[in-house]
Every structure is written in C-alpha cells, then in structure tokens.
Amino acid sequence: MLQLLGKCSGADRVYIFDKKEKNRKEYFCLQYEWKNEDDILEKEQLFSEITVEDIPHWTDELKKGLTIQVTDCEELSPMEQEYNLMKKHHTYSRVLAPIFSRDHLSGFIGMDHFYKGISELFIHQLAFVGAHLNTARENLRMFTLLGKNLESMEKERQILNVLCEDCTSVYKVNLLDDTAEVVKLEQGANAPKILKNREKIILCYSKELKYYYDHFVIKESAPDFLETFDCQNLIGELKTRDKISRRYQSRENANRHQYFEIRATRLPSSTDFPVLIAFRHVDEIIKEERNHQRELEDSLAEVKMNNEIISAISKIYYMIYRIDLQDFYYEEITGGSENHRFTGMKGTAAAHITSDSSEKVASKYRAMVKQFYDLSTLKKRLEKEESIAVDYLATDNNWHLARFIVQSRAEDGTARQVLLVIRVISEEKRREKYLIDAVEEANRANEAKSEFLSRMSHDIRTPMNAIMGFTRVARNHLHEPDKILDCLDKINLSGSNLQQLINDVLDISRIESGEFRIDSEPVKLSELCKLYEQNIRGTAEDKNQKFICNRHDIIYDTVLFDRLRIGQIYMNLLSNAVKYTPEGGTVELEVYEEPFPDKDKIRLVSIVRDNGIGMSEKFMKEMYSQFSRAIDTRVNKVQGSGLGLAIVKKIVDQMNGTIEATSRLHEGTTFRVTLDVPFIREQEVSETTAEIPFFKLRPSRIIKTLLIAEDNDLNYEILEEQLEMYGIHCVRAVNGKECVQLFEIDPSGTYDAILMDMQMPVMNGLDATRAIRRLPSPESKQIPIIALTANAYLEDVQKCKEAGMNDHMSKPVQIEQIIRTVERWMK
Question: Which of 2, 64, 201, 711 fits a disulfide with 14 by CB distance 3.0 to 4.6 angstroms?
Fold first, then answer.
C-alpha cells in the first residue's frame, strides 16, 4: 500500500508513525516506511522518533482530524519547531494525514517530496486511507493473534493427551471461580456415577470434590483429602511449586481399581488460576511398593537382629577377630553403636597376633600371652572346650581379657573357625581387689573387735570385782571406820577406772557419729598444769616414779580452748606414760608457747616424755587405730581400753592441731602436741575468768524444784540425795504418763525444769515430752526439759530435739553438770 501511494504521488518516502507514551511523555515512532528503493521495513522504533514537542502545531491539527500539506518548507517559518525539523531532515514538501483509533489520535501517515501538481482529490484519498488504516491493522493483528491461539491450543491439546493417557479422569479447574470442566472421563471409573451425563456443562469444583470424597474415598487413607485440594490451599501451594499430589484408597470401581493418585498441576495463565486435576489408578504401583517394602523390612529385621547380636558382644569386647584355622587367615571385625562390619584389615593371623602380644602386653605377661596365642596348639586346646581365656596387664596399665570362642567345627569335631575377642577388665579387677581388700579389712576389724571385747571383758570385770568385793568387806567391818573408809576409797578408785573405760568407748562413738563437740572457754595454763601434776604425781609416786612438770616461756597464761578435751589429751598421754614406765622411771610434762603469725592466737606446745618400755615400729604404724594396744591387759597388770591414743588423735585433729610421736623399744616414748589457740590478755583475764563456772557445796540460787521422771528407784534416790545437797527439792514421776499428769495438774510455776529419763514403762520420755509440749498452757512450751539417758549416739540426741527437749545428757552425769545445764536453760 505504501509503495502504491509512493508511486502514484511520485514521493521519495511514504511512512506511518504510531503515537506512543514513555515515562508519561507522548511521542511518534516510525512503524512502516517505503522508499523509492522499493524497501519496506516494519520494526518497532526502526528509524526515528518524533516527540510531540518537535511538532506541536501539527499535533494539534492532526488531533482535530485535519490533513497537513506543506508544498514548500519555507512556508513553515512561523512554525519554528516544524520548520527546524524539516530543515534537519532536508525535507522541502510533506503531507500528513491523521490515523484514529476509537476517536483518539493513534498516529499519522505521511509522504515527503511528492509531485507539485498532485491533485486535491489525492490528498483527500490519503486522508481517507488514514481514517481506515487503523481498522485494517487491527483486523490484521487479530488475525495474527487468532493464528497464534490456534497453534497454542493445538499444543495444549497434545500436552493434555499425553498427560491424560494413564488417567481415569481429568478436569480443568479455575480455582478463582471454583469451576471445573471435564477433559477426560474413562468408562468404568467412579466419576461417571457422580456426573450422570453432565460432562458437557461447567461444574462446581468444590461441591463435586466433596461428594466424591464422602461417597467413594476411604477416609482413613486420606484424612486431609479435602483440605489439601481446597481451592484456597491449592492457590497457596501452587504459587511456589508446579504440582501437588496425594495417594488414597477408594471404593473399588468397575475396573477393579481401588488405589488412586490425585494430582493438581498448574497451567500457565495471566488472568485466572487454572489447574489440571487428574486421577489415575496406582494399584500395580502400590502392590509393587508393598512387596518392596515387605522385602526391605525383612532384610532390615535380619540386619537389625545381626547388629544387635554383634552390638551386644561389642559392648563387652572392644576387638573381635575371625580366624580360619585351616589357612590361619584372619579378618578384623569392628563394632559401633549402630553398624558392625569387617574393617577390611586381614592377613596372616599368627604374625598379626604375635605382633600385638609383643607390643601391647606388659613384659611380665608376654610369655604367657604368647603361649595362649599359639595357633598351632589351639585346635588341641579347644577339643573339649567351646572357649578358653587369659587375662593380662597391657602396656597402657589396663587389664585385658582375651578369649578364643569356637565359631564352627569340621566334620571330625576339630575347631575350624574361631573368634578371638578382647575386652578391658580393669574395672572388674579393681572391684575384685576392692572386695578382697574389704574382706581382709573386715577380717582384721572383726579380729580387732573380738580382741577388744576380750580385753574389755577383762578390764571391766576387774574393777567390778573390786567394787563388789570391797563392798562385802565393808559390810563385814561396819564397826571399823578406818576399814570402811579404806574400802570406800578403793571402791571409788575402781568406779573411776570403770567410768573411764565406758567414757572412752562413748567418746569414740560420739566422734564417729558426729556428736563430738569442741567448746571454748578461758583456761589458766598454770592452774591446768598444777591440776594434772597433782593427779599424776600421786599415781607416779605409787610406782616410785619421778614426775617432772616443766612450764616455761608462757607468754599468755589464759587461753581459750575446751577444758574437758585438753584434759583428755593430757590425762591419756600422761596415764599411758605412767602405765608403761617401770618402777623407778621418769615421766615429764613440758608446756610452753611459741609465737604464731595470727596476732590473736598463740601456739601451745605440750610434750609428754617417759623412759618406759617404748613402742615398736610396727605398733607405731597403727597406734592411733581403735582397739590397738602394745601390751595385752589380760596377761599384764596395765589397765586400759586401747582407745586412749585413738581419742587423743581425733581430738587433736578436731582442734586443727598436730601430734607427733618418737619411740624406741626399751628406751621410752615422746609425744609432742601442737595447738594454735586464742589467748586472753592480762587486763581481760579478771572479767573473763569470772565467767568460768565453779561449784561449791552450796544451795542453787535459782533452782527451787525439779520434776524428775525416773522409773528406777536406785537411780532416783542417788539423784535426789545429791540435788538436795544443793537445796533443790525433787518431785518424782515413775513413768512418762505420770510426769505429764503432774505437770498438767500442779499450779503454774511449780517446777523450774523437768529431768526426763528415756526408757520408762507406760510412756517413754520422747512421748511424754511431746505430750507436754502439746498442752495449751504457755508454760508447757517454755519449761526446760533435759534428757537423762544412757544412749549417747547422735541419732538419740536428734530424736530428743525433734521431740521438743532442750538438751541431752548421757549417764553417768556429774551433779554439777546437771545444775549448770538447768540454770543455763532457765536463764
């Protein structure tokens, strides 16, 4: 067409420009062009672009539907932009006719350098061409698009045929409007039962899907069927993936199919959201998969069982070898928590095992292990045995056990294949040694206890015999005061010895149970040394011994420590020195002080020396153990429990001190005790020492009446007689129940405190205390209740406190101690 216009008008160039918009700016773009060289080009933005600003006047004329004719460009001089444009392109004549689309200017058709004598009719024809050109172009575009759509539909049809080949039914679904149309429907499927000749109409997708699910799908096989293939869920899922599928079981159809797969595949579209929903039967696939699954499960079960067996063995044995005794070839097996396999290590068994025994076995056991690993004799050794073993110490200081186990035998019964398994048995060896040591220790302890009981039986019976004997002597000499006094002195001495034996046993028990306490109080060293010098000197003089008390370099005479415990240290060491020093010997106590880095403490050094029988090196190694004695009291006159040094050592340890001993047989013994103790300066002594309790035979100033629960008449009589010596009135209850009744019925304030025996008939001391504490009167919660019992163990003390008692005192007790304890709780 452009060529025809060009030749008819004699123009050099005929063209069509389309109006377009870019970045909100309008411009005209060359779309078609004909030149007199007979060359037609069609391409977006092929040659040039003309903006609206380049031809503003022409643009206004064209929008009005007017044709522009310029026969001489000089005529355009008033139109500066248009004039400059024609000058730029060396154009002297031009005709432009508008092209409209839907009443809007969409471009123009133009000619350059046409015949000067061109008719007005031709110009009008050009305008007519421009008016109808857009309609022709639109028809051409639609025809081209129709061809492309037909081609696309053919391709889509071919794709659908391929996709639907193995499907029983296929539907094209628009997820946006919930519609579906049938693409394929196979006879014999369940779907025709639903549709009932509605295959040609548009269906409601969700309604048909739910009907199918409710009437045909086995719910247990696909509980999420409807949720998965819901329109909204599919839109969300298929935005990020191409397809989604599920398998399920349905009621068997006419083709005897019951296992199906539903698959949703998204189709390309820019306007809606189409998907292809396809159903296909998978019965054969399911059957094949189940067969494979069954075979796999059987194989896994067998492998698991084998692994469990090997794993169980490997938990015991860290190394396992399989050895063929025909060719003496070995394979190494390794074990883990899950998989067990051959490591790949293999070779000549004899060489490998011999190398292991020489490198990893301690030298002391190598010969024995080498003989055990001798494969040439192994068949003989396993003739009548299924396994043989040896344990040895390895170079890593662990004990190992190696064992040969028969795996298979030849027809003649000889071992053909064996397993060599090795495991670490260090823990078993340690337990074995521990048990052996424990048995030996228990035997030694039993022997020591038996020996101790034998000695104690002798040592207890001796003073008891004296007490009973001198009691009979005194009874037979009632009219001889001097004789009676001598008997009483000897009874008192024997009683003291017996009490010391009992106290030693109780102290050991208290120390072991944790009840043993260290209390601090001001003590004058000068008075302490004088006290023990007086106590020991008489005993030493009875044996014609020389006793020396050497106290020097005492910086601070008053120190703080436990008077009772330091007394036990001194008395045990000094009495031992006197006991084990023959007549005519020497016993010395040396006490002095040394400076100590802590400005509030002083180091107190106490040394006890004797030139007695001494101790052997063997005995010195166990002299602090319980029940140990260098001399048997049953064949020697020396009395004692054998617990003295054990008590001394434990007391010194609890006071954070040290004790050292040097001794030689037949030359004597020296003990050195070092204690770091707080001291009191002289200006503080008068105030502090005033607090030191000192009892004289005088009435108690604050204790008036005590309620005493005691079922034993003799014990009560002794207690009452001694308390009345201090002006204290006593009221007796013969059991716990009577004690509660007396306290409840007597007026408030009658009793200052209650002394409670533990073991009584009717009601014991613990129950009586609980009953008193439960009484409604305020006094029942406040009155001091002190336990008097022969039980001295920590658990007994704890029971007393839990029952509500204030304190606990073990029999026999000093009467002064009772008074001091009651007064303390009354305050």
Answer: 2
Residues 614 and 734 in one domain: no
Give mean pLDDT, residues 739-764.
Answer: 93
The 8-class DSSP code of residue 51 comes to: E
Do residues 61 and 82 lie in contact, with contact meaning Cβ atoms separated by under 8 Å? Answer: no
- Partners of residue 387 on adjacent β-strands: 405
- The half-sphere exposure of 37 on its side-chain side, counting CA atoms within 13 A, is 4
Query: Coil, strand, or helix at residue 744?
Result: helix
Strand arrangement of the beta sheet that strand 705-709 belongs to: 729-733, 705-709, 753-757, 785-789, 807-810
Between CA 771 and CA 778 the distance in angstroms is 14
Does 696 reside within a domain? no
Q: How far is CA 223 from the centre of its chain?
A: 40
Most confident of 304-318, 349-363, 403-417: 403-417
* Structural domain contains residue 90: yes
Range of the domain at 526: 517-689
R_g over Cα of the chain: 60
State how far the Cα of 237 lies from the Cα of 229, in Å rounded to an integer.
10
Maximum distance among all Cα pairs of the chain, rounded to whole angstroms: 189
Give the pLDDT band (50/70/90) at residue 117: low
Contact (Cβ atoms closer than 8 angstroms) between residue 184 and residue 166 = no
What does DSSP say about strands 399-409 and 387-393: parallel, antiparallel, or unpaired? antiparallel
- CATH number, domain of 621, equals 3.30.565.10
The single-letter code of the amino acid at 266 is R
Give the integer Cα–Cα distance in Å for 55 and 390.
112
Residue 695 binned pLDDT confidence (cut-offs 50, 70, 90): very low
**719 and 607 fall within a common domain:** no
C-alpha 571/C-alpha 580 separation (Å) is: 14
Among residues 409, 424, 439, which one ends one of the domains? 424
| Measured distance CA(206)–CA(233) in Å, rounded | 12
Q: SS3 helix, strand, coil % of the chain, rounded to 5?
A: 45, 25, 30
- Whether 99 and 105 have beta carbons less than 8 Å apart is answered as yes
> Which of 384, 408, 424 is the C-terminal boundary of a domain?
424
Reduce the secondary structure of 628-660 to three states and give it as a string.
Answer: CCCCCCCCCCCCCCCCHHHHHHHHHHHCCCEEE
Residue at 286 is within a domain: no
Separation CA 791–CA 802 (nearest Å): 16
Q: What is the pTM of this model?
A: 0.39
656 with 678, same domain?
yes
